[in-house]
Design goal:
Elements (H helix, E strand, L loop, with lengths): L1 E4 L28 E2 L8 E7 L2 H8 L7 E8 L4 H9 L2 E2 L2 E2 L4 E4 L2 H4 L17 E8 L6 H8 L4 E9 L8 E2 L8 E2 L3 H10 L8
Parallel strand pairs: 3-9
Antiparallel strand pairs: 1-3, 1-11, 2-3, 4-8, 4-9, 5-6, 7-8, 9-10
Length: 203
């Protein structure tokens, strides 16, 4: 299953005592599935839900380096050197991030975005910019720390797609509004199962 996880929802099916965040059970009434990977509660976007433990492990193993693409609204307007810094790697907790892809998000893509609930907080005197940032690793709050490292704090973060690295189109949020989920079509399931038959192809 693919879920467009809303803002304010933990990437788990059980609530945390004392937490102000909701959980996936508020949105998905399907037993025995779990998130393959996670998104922070204050982030939105694509989550793959599966009952297959091997597939969960395969998709989250950093040795395989699946590209994950994020749409990121940041404070200010990044210049070319700052975008190059994101591409080449920045230091986070004394470790440099792996090379990434970073570019300004096109106006065409921005037309598909809807307002977040609750809306982000902005300052009238400071513009914001949307970036498309693709990573092959998933360190804790990595996107937010990367944009902060180049001087542009993240205001809104949406994971848009997951590349299965098999030559086919990435799994994406296309057609899913916030809080909506769908079952994978048969060809998508076949592609995922094929990943488990190629354990030696690490990137």
């Amino acid at each position: 299953m693919l879920l467009h996880k809303p803002y304010g929802v933990l990437s788990q099916f059980t609530p945390e005592d004392g937490s102000r965040w909701g959980c996936l059970a508020d949105w998905v009434n399907v037993p025995d599935v779990y998130a393959a990977g996670r998104l922070d509660a204050d982030s939105e976007g694509l989550l793959l839900l599966t009952a297959d433990g091997r597939l969960q492990q395969r998709l989250t193993d950093p040795r395989f380096g699946h590209w994950r693409t994020y749409w990121v609204q940041v404070e200010g307007i990044p210049d070319r050197p700052q975008l190059n810094a994101l591409r080449n790697g920045v230091m986070i907790k004394k470790r440099r991030t792996r090379p990434a892809k970073a570019e300004l998000l096109s106006a065409e893509h921005l037309q598909t975005l809807t307002e977040r609930n609750p809306p982000i907080r902005t300052r009238l005197s400071i513009p914001t910019t949307w970036l498309q940032l693709s990573l092959r690793e998933g360190r804790n709050r990595q996107v937010r720390r990367m944009t902060a490292a180049v001087g542009h704090p993240t205001l809104r973060l949406i994971r848009h797609s997951l590349d299965l690295m098999d030559g086919g189109p990435p799994l994406s949020l296309h057609g899913l509004v916030s809080g909506q989920w769908r079952e994978l079509v048969e060809t998508e399931n076949q592609r995922l199962m094929a990943l488990l038959r190629r354990p030696s192809e690490r990137r």
